[in-house]
Design goal:
CATH superfamily of the largest domain: Type I PLP-dependent aspartate aminotransferase-like (Major domain)
Mean pLDDT: 96
CATH architecture of the largest domain: 3-Layer(aba) Sandwich
CATH class of the largest domain: Alpha Beta
Distance between the termini: 45 Å
Number of helices: 15
Structural class: alpha/beta
Low-confidence stretches: none
Strand content: 5-15%
Strand order of the largest sheet: 2-8-7-6-5-3-4
Number of strands: 13
Length: 383
């Protein structure tokens, strides 16, 4: 067996979900909405499966989807893309990450990672032969500074792997932070793989800036998006990749030998969805913001310290004011005693872990959130 993958533990997401099933808990750990998603987009996929082409689509993706991706990112980010040379469709954002890292990393290359981070990042970097260099972000602001970048970058830096908006922190990278990072990327001649899957799920009029729209980073950035996140259809696994031609060409070759292609009916439906009016995307953000506010106010009423949330499906609480210092133990106790599953944020760190932050998913129906708050209220009275 491969020693890297054989030694990996079961993910915290599966562990907590298993505990949730055993204790009949309300699962606010896994990050997906319990809404079925927009009916017209789902209907487009169903119609395409019945009436459309179901054999291999082109390896790069259906032309209609690649054109729709280019038009969508021009509309929302002001980025002009050549859909034939700069746009690729993958089987989910994780496959896009894998293809990008395998294409861009040679064994021994250093990769700058910002933690907390999606749990797939580090194994993929290591499997590609990369050497991780970590920048550790701390709550409540989860920001980095020049000194941290100085410590992480070196002459061996080849790739920077970044997530903005950031899961689990719920933050959006500020423009001044992007400009600071761009200075280091240019100085060390590095490439940025930017995971922007939460690009449409931002709140309070906070704007997400795609790194691809920054002139200094235009030729150095691989932008990764997710139709599953854009349309709250997380099971679809349709990734959207945009990058300058040399990067696009290399990543396409890696993609060719991973999944090769993606179901054509889903591609057809995503192409339709990306062309929807702006009111759809705004309305979706407003709905998630209302759920965030509802759940945050309930948690605060119960005595939790709720950390700021600008984006994503997730809200964090700091358990230190409760006199607690172990997020894993707290989450295990929460699911067993309160019947509510959450995720310890320390699971998103490889080192120098933050251990007093706990993540809840608020992308649920009101009745589910209210039920969780009722259980948490009983738990808090016994804490």
């Amino acid at each position: 067996m491969n020693s890297l993958f054989a030694s990996l533990p079961t993910t915290v997401f599966e562990s907590m979900s298993q505990l949730a099933r055993e204790h009949d808990a309300i699962n606010l750990g896994q990050g997906f909405p319990d809404d079925p998603g927009p009916e017209d987009v789902r209907r487009a996929a169903a119609d395409a499966a019945v009436d459309g082409w179901n054999q291999y689509p082109p390896m790069f993706g259906l032309p209609e989807l690649r054109q729709a991706i280019a038009a969508h990112y021009q509309r929302f980010h002001g980025v002009d893309l050549d859909w034939q040379r700069e746009v690729l469709v993958t089987s989910g954002a994780t496959e896009a990450l894998a293809a990008s890292l395998l294409a861009l990393i040679e064994p021994g290359d250093e990769v700058v990672l910002f933690q907390p981070m999606y749990d797939a990042y580090l194994p993929l970097v290591l499997r590609a032969g990369g050497v991780p260099r970590f920048v550790t972000l701390q709550p409540p602001q989860w920001r980095f500074d020049a000194a941290q970048l100085e410590a992480a970058f070196s002459d061996k830096t080849r790739v920077v792997l970044l997530n903005t908006p950031l899961n689990p922190a719920g933050t959006v990278l500020a423009r001044e932070d992007i400009d600071l990072l761009a200075d280091f990327v240019e100085r060390y001649d590095a490439t940025v793989v930017c995971d922007e899957v939460w690009e449409h799920i931002t709140f309070d009029d906070v704007a997400h800036t795609s790194l691809l729209s920054v002139p200094a980073l235009r030729e150095r950035t691989v932008k990764i998006g997710s139709a599953g996140k854009i349309f709250s259809l997380t099971g679809w696994k349709v990734g959207l990749v945009a990058a300058a031609p040399p990067l696009h060409a290399a990543i396409s070759r890696a993609h060719q030998y991973l999944t090769f292609t993606t179901p054509p009916n889903l591609q057809t439906a995503v192409a339709y969805g990306l062309g929807k009016e702006e009111d759809f995307f705004l309305g979706q953000r407003q709905d998630f913001q209302r759920q965030r506010d509802r759940f945050a106010s309930g948690l605060e009423r119960l005595g939790f310290t709720v950390l700021p949330c600008q984006a994503t499906y997730f809200l964090n609480v700091d358990i230190a004011p409760l006199g607690l210092s172990d997020d894993v133990a707290f989450c295990e106790r929460l699911v067993r005693e309160a019947g509510v599953a959450a995720i310890p944020v320390s699971a998103f760190y490889a080192e120098d872990k933050v251990t007093t932050a706990v993540r809840f998913c608020f992308a649920k129906r009101d009745a589910v959130l209210d039920g969780a708050l009722e259980r948490l209220e009983r738990f808090m009275t016994q804490l």
